[in-house]
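Section 5: illustrative case.
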């Protein structure tokens, strides 16, 4: 992408009402624009990151055996009356009436709709286990939308729903999502700790929140320090085998959110290993058995031929919230520091003198080579001041940057810059291009 043809409305100053660093940086880097309280337009740079996060979530869901579909944002109120949640959900639900006076709502979550889809088609336990998911915009009329995309009213969620014939099967489905979550957050450069959590309006009695530790997080959490650096199991696990030991390794150490906190149990941990901190909830998984399948009659024939209400769980990831959470976890005073996996652009070429024919020739060459190698590259070919150009690249956080100026070009070198370490090195064009390609492959 040539910056001269792109739309990157970066700001010098963040608006005064942006209180946390991710919100400030997303506004300054021209990633989002507020259209109403808690409702944002995703500008091209922000949209790129959002799509990359979405793609990682998709790959890890698919790997764990979940199947993607897409449900609408608008749902019939009558569907929610079947589960009893239409009245129970309260003022967070946006209720809409169409021209035929039919009551609709903008979905805050999809348990009812997926249960309706399931019961329309699935008849036998032989078709289980099944896990269906989508990534779709949700609306919750939050009392206090704040911190930009962290607590929006309209936000993008990945929600998956599992169906099993019995509790043992449902537990396995829960474990697959538990492990998939560890992997997907790790791919975004995040350390997310699973913690025992309250189930709220979704219901059920087994639930974990996945928490990224950050001072600006809205949740108060308590856990054993060893959980923070435990790492993810990686993709090569036996997905339909026994994942319980991997889950137990994480759940045997104390970790709970405020609502589930047990001070006495926490104090049994040696003091130097106790961690009491703030955190961002980036995912939340639930096992709720037959809470929806019984009232909504989602039944299949069991092995004995008898109709059996299916065992269900649901599994949410805050896809749009993650963009903010990644920035909270990785930035400096100059701007964002993206992990390569979600960077809006993987590499940049910065021309310090767009009016110099030799400089332009080298830049065009680097740009063409990087594009050919499949690197997502942003080429700043504008006539702006060099200082302003370099600080924009720092702000938007392109992981590797090639800086091309007349002096270097005369000497046969350009500058290679690593955004995270801040280290710059002079090298030939070919060597610099190779470094960019290698950085992408890591
Ligand atoms: N149906 C279940 C799981 S599919 C569900 O709705 N769970 S949830 O309420 O916990 O939401 C799932 C995830 O969405 C949360 O973990 C959080 O990361 C994200 N989320 C929830 N509310 C908001 C919000 N107002 N703004 C941004 N993200 C949110």
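Designed sequence:
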């Amino acid at each position: 992408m040539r910056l001269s043809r792109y739309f990157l409305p970066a700001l010098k100053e963040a608006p005064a009402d942006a209180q946390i660093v991710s919100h400030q940086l997303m506004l300054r880097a021209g990633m989002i624009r507020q259209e109403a309280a808690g409702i944002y337009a995703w500008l091209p740079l922000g949209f790129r990151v959002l799509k990359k996060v979405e793609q990682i979530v998709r790959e890890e869901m698919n790997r764990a055996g979940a199947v993607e579909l897409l449900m609408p944002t608008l749902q019939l109120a009558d569907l929610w009356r079947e589960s009893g949640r239409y009245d129970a959900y309260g003022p967070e639900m946006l209720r809409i009436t169409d021209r035929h006076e039919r009551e609709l709502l903008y979905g805050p979550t999809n348990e009812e709709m997926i249960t309706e889809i399931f019961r329309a088609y699935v008849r036998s336990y032989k078709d289980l286990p099944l896990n269906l998911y989508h990534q779709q915009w949700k609306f919750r009329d939050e009392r206090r939308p704040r911190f930009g995309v962290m607590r929006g009213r309209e936000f993008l969620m990945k929600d998956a729903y599992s169906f099993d014939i019995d509790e043992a099967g449902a537990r396995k489905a829960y474990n697959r999502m538990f492990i998939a979550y560890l992997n997907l957050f790790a791919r975004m450069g995040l350390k997310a700790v699973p913690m025992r959590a309250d189930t709220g309006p979704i219901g059920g009695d087994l639930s974990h929140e996945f928490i990224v530790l950050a001072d600006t997080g809205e949740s108060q959490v308590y856990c054993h320090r060893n959980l923070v650096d435990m790492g993810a199991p990686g993709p090569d696990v036996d997905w339909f085998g026994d994942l319980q030991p991997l889950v137990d390794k994480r759940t045997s150490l104390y970790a709970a959110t405020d609502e589930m906190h047990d001070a006495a149990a926490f104090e049994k941990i040696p003091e130097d290993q106790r961690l009491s901190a703030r955190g961002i909830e980036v995912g939340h998984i639930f096992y709720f058995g037959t809470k929806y399948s019984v009232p909504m009659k989602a039944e299949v024939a069991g092995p004995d031929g008898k109709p059996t209400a299916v065992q269900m769980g649901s599994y949410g990831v805050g896809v749009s919230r993650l963009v903010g959470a990644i920035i909270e976890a990785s930035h400096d005073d100059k701007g964002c520091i993206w992990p390569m996996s979600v960077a809006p652009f993987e590499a940049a070429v910065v021309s310090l003198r767009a009016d110099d024919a030799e400089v332009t020739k080298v830049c065009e060459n680097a740009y063409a080579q990087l594009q050919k190698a499949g690197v997502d590259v942003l080429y700043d070919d504008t006539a702006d001041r060099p200082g302003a150009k370099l600080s924009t690249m720092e702000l938007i956080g392109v992981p590797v940057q090639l800086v091309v100026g007349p002096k270097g070009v005369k000497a046969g070198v350009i500058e290679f810059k690593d955004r995270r370490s801040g280290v710059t090195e002079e090298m030939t064009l070919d060597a610099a291009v190779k470094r960019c390609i290698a950085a992408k492959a890591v």
